[in-house]
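Hi team,

As requested, here is the filled-out complex form for the adenosine-5'-diphosphate run. I kept the field names the same as last time so the parser does not choke. Let me know if anything looks off before we queue the next batch.

— J.
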Amino acid sequence: NAHKAAQGSAHETARASAYEHEVKALLSEAGVPVPRGVVVRDLDFSPAAELAEPLVLKAFGPGLVHKSDVGAVALGLSRDELEAAAAGMRARLEVAGFLVEEQAEAGVELIVGLVRDPGFGPVLLAGLGGVWTEALRDTALRLCPISEVDARRMLASLRGASVLYGRRGGPPVDVDAVVKLLMTVGGPGGLWERLELGEFELNPVIAGPSGVIAVDARHLPA
Ligand code: ADP
Ligand code: MG
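And here is what came back:
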């Protein structure tokens, strides 16, 4: 009946819009590196004392999807600046709470995603991410499970691959760590086998000379 159906879809919507910190908790448990962080529901930021500065403040709430577009992300904060930044967000946005996390060092921003194609099944996506995602559309796709050779080929196939190998002025990226992350998501026994995780996107994963870290994570709506 219509009422039941509406309840069902409302439930799906609720599940599809799990908050960033909830998605990160699941992924972190499964071996995906994420920043250390704390969740704060009021404006008492004392739990952030355990985190190393600089800090990142992110507001979460039912309507906050593309956070930086609406000013729900503040980078480079000290502990003392959290409260005022949060109050500013609360004045403009409908906020359910805040994620405070350690700010990762700058690096190459990648996108890693898992999509479930109705025909092909689970597909791993990897490419250049962050602010470049839309402009460059430089991504590679492989059916899961991938092998380590597949992972390396995916990265090498990117048009912008040279940013990973240190041929564009920057230091080379820890490509082995990127490959390990791709295997964690799309390799044998990887997250693609966990149907309850649905489809998700890590954007960006920041890749540096000594490791990778997924600084944003979200479930894709079903
Ligand atoms: P959005 O919902 O807008 O995608 P993000 O969580 O991706 O929000 O944050 C926006 C940008 O801020 C990221 O693309 C990244 O460059 C930067 N950023 C976010 N969190 C961190 C972090 N913990 N460390 C370093 N940079 C971060
Ligand atoms: Mg993001």
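Two things worth flagging: The longest strand covers residues 108-117. The chain is about 25% helix and 25% strand.

Thanks,
J.
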